[in-house]
Amino acid sequence: MMPITSAISSISAAASPSQTSATNGTPLITLLPKLVKNEEKEFVVQEQGVSLCKLSKITIRPLTKEEEFTYLKRTVAALNWFQKHGFKQYVILPQHKSFDNWYRQAEKFNAVDSYEEGMSPHFAEEENYEKSFSELYNPNSYVEGLKEITSNKKESEKIDGALKKLSLLQKNWGFQLLPKYQIRLTLYGVTANDDVNSGTIFLRITPFVNNFSGSIIHEVVHIGVEKNIVQKFKLTCAERECLVDLICSIYFKEIFPKYTLQYLCSKWPIAKSMAEFVNEKTIIADLPQAISQYAKLNPRVCVCSDKPLIM
Ligand SMILES: [Zn+2]
């Protein structure tokens, strides 16, 4: 996603290595197309460290066919969960006649019992679905989005600025700012999603949204508070989303003045209760302490059935 100002630079899609361009002298990402036997172009992605700012590196590339299929399986496995939590309408799935049955079955799939975060679920007839998916996957579908992202200097500056602000939280109370984030472009699923353990951020580019910096920072914040706040105080899925939204809308109000709270957080009473503890002062000084007070007044009931899957 982003090109980062001080960092991202550019990408040359469908170009030879010698066409790799760079800004500030630092090549970010290079896409090397190579011809394969059937004349279809296959893009080989070569990542180079991209210094977003002095604090974190951000690399970006599309998901490969295998990775995209795995990601699709995880999304399908969570369809039931999306349905229950009102997110189904935001999920984009590839259309193929052989998938109709798969999606119908998945709606009855109990994601909480059958799916573990980070695991790749297995479906009956999965091999057939994978074969059908191979007919749909086209690396060219990612090229425009990738170009847009890596050439948008304004958005990359916002990411840069937000990461710098987060470094203060890292210093003050241990916000987990990773040395490296890997952004992976996908055509499916919800708007964005993260894998806390690997620091991977999945960004959907269909439809392409110009102001993608807010989505990326939303996921960076998820990763940063997951261990020492979300897991430590056993926050529910709704609380987790509200916390991230509160941080983004309050702490980054100058960078993202139009940051929109998710439906979940704008309507749920949880957000109101949490907002009493989360403000600019507590975000900067000691957010774990503030959430510990919130959790005492709002005892945990059961987070097991509310485990966040993909958001
Ligand atoms: Zn979220």
Task: Describe the secondary structure blueprint for this structure.
Layout: E1 11-12, E2 29-35, E3 41-47, E4 57-62, H1 65-77, H2 79-84, H3 100-106, H4 111-114, H5 126-136, H6 143-151, H7 153-173, E5 180-186, E6 192-195, E7 200-204, H8 213-231, H9 237-251, H10 263-267, H11 269-275, H12 280-285, H13 287-297
Parallel strand pairs: 1-2, 4-5, 5-7
Antiparallel strand pairs: 2-3, 6-7
The protein binds zinc ion.
Describe the structure.
The protein has a domain at 214-306. Helix content is 43%, strand content 12%. The protein has helices at residues 65-77, 79-84, 100-106, 111-114, 126-136, 143-151, 153-173, 213-231, 237-251, 263-267, 269-275, 280-285, 287-297, and strands at residues 11-12, 29-35, 41-47, 57-62, 180-186, 192-195, 200-204. Mean pLDDT is 78; it is low at 1-53 and 304-311. It has 311 residues and is of the alpha/beta class. The strands form 2 sheets. Strands 4-5-7-6 form a 4-stranded mixed sheet, with helices on one face. A 3-stranded mixed sheet has the order 1-2-3. Helix 9 crosses helix 11. It binds zinc ion (ZN). Zinc ion binds at residues 218, 222, 241, 244, 311.
